[in-house]
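Lab notebook, bench 4. The sequencing result for the construct came back, and we need a structural model before the next group meeting so we can plan mutations. Quick request posted to the team channel:

Model the 3D structure of this chain.
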Amino acid sequence: MDANVDVLFHTRVVASVKGENNRLSHVVTESKSGREAWRGNVFIDTTGDGDLAALSGCGFDYGRKSDGATQPFSLLGIVSGIDFDEVKDFARWSGVGSAQSKQNLFEQIKKGGNIPSYMKPSLHPISKGLFKLMCNQEYGFSPMNSRDVTKATIQARKEVHNVVNGLRSTGGVWENIQLIATGEQIGTREGRRIHGLYTVTVDDMIKGSRFDDAVCRVNGSVNVHSVSMDDMKSDKFGSDYLEGQKTQPYDIPIRALIAKDVGGLLMAGRCISGDFFAHSNYRNTGNAVPMGQAAGRLAAYSSKRNIPPQEVKFSSLGL
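Done. Here's the predicted structure in token form:
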């Protein structure tokens, strides 16, 4: 390719090799091509769950510190056969409040004979006759356990089908609703949070911390989804878990993208170094993109000059 980048799909990292000074030297993958080893000066873990870092011996945190509780998985569906003008009171758009549209949709799903595991379901217009449906949450499963992911996926697909079939059974504006697709992979909100040179915390969110080595500024409210069905039923969600404390926009420093325990390893996306609450806020795609850009620049700069990532001056990266 023009950028001299080789893209390899359908391949998973399964092991790693470290050399002098505990520095990562190779990653091992498996695919249809068999087992292969890849040498590099710097590696970036963007697996979401911190797989490479864990395989390399990095320390990590997972779940809420107090009890290990984690946010649920969710499986989205794409539906058609409904018309925006007829279902707009049940959809999230600028003309109706989010909370009201969710309650309206919940009542319709209940009318069809189902109580969704996500009791704040939402319907998002993609085009006039195409919508994204969110009605599912799977509690208590680990993204690091293939049996858990499999069971959660099967349960979730069954529920999405039941919800759509139930809506269709009510007739009216739903009489022609069809499920076009469910996600190829169930969505996981949590994974390993790899220990870095800096850990982003809830205190950073409350203070609105600023850093000279910032790679992005995180906006938006706390986004903790109910960690159990009991919490879902009691409407405990988001900032409720912070017991009313207010948060402000804050910076992610590049130090949170540099592994603490293994040399030559960076992270980007939701597996960077942070606590449970900060992770709930920065884990979104809009923040992962600048993290990936920053980690890529740092990796290139470090590799070309044979300087450990933690010794590179942030001002040299031109971010």
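Helices lie at 51-55, 84-87, 98-111, 146-169, 202-207, 229-233, 276-282, 285-305.
Will bring this to the meeting.
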